[in-house]
Specification:
Elements: H1 3-19, E1 31-34, E2 40-44, E3 49-53, H2 67-89, E4 94-105, H3 107-110, E5 121-132, H4 136-149, H5 151-158
Antiparallel strand pairs: 1-2, 2-3, 4-5
């Protein structure tokens, strides 16, 4: 897909959202089912069933997916798709590339070993390695726009309002 094809594909969608801003607000959903025999949760991804469980650092077997890894994988996926879309839009052709995400967390917090230790990631690093002939100013713009438009990155960076509730069924 080239820049003109991308613009043509997105033009009617963008116009609809300009004409009707409420149409742009979509609720994405995820669902999981608690596993009745393991400390695990079956997550319905829309494409397959993913079994999430405890990380080995908290006693897990390592056979199930770790939700922390899944968060970083979601960041990589979103950043990679955003990078490709922006590269196409600004006509900065990429021959190839890789996206890396790393995050540091202290499992003492998760396990309640140290009440002062944070629960969750302390830091997350996102890195792109690209093979391109694009000039540096295009790469600078590519990074700036990828950061600006990556939904998962912006969500992690800005921390949305979050609520939680429990219902008896």
């Amino acid at each position: 897909m080239d820049a003109d094809q991308l613009r043509a594909m997105q033009a009617p969608i963008k116009q609809r959202y300009k004409d009707d801003p409420d149409a742009a607000v979509i609720t994405l959903k995820a669902k999981g089912t608690l596993d009745d025999s393991n400390t695990a949760c079956k997550v319905e991804t829309g494409r397959a069933l993913a079994m999430a469980g405890l990380h080995p650092a908290t006693g897990g077997s390592g056979l199930e997916l770790c939700s922390g890894d899944m968060l970083l994988e979601a960041l990589v996926a979103c950043a990679g798709v955003t990078l490709k879309s922006v590269a196409t839009a600004i006509e900065a052709p990429l021959k190839s590339g890789h996206v890396f995400a790393e995050g540091d967390l202290d499992f003492r917090g998760t396990l309640g070993v140290d009440k002062e230790a944070a629960v969750g990631f302390d830091s997350i690093r996102l890195r792109f390695e690209v093979d391109t002939d694009a000039p540096q100013d295009k790469l600078d713009l590519l990074l700036k726009l990828t950061e600006r438009y990556c939904v998962v990155y912006q969500t992690i960076k800005n921390g949305p309002r979050v609520s939680v509730e429990m219902k008896r069924v």
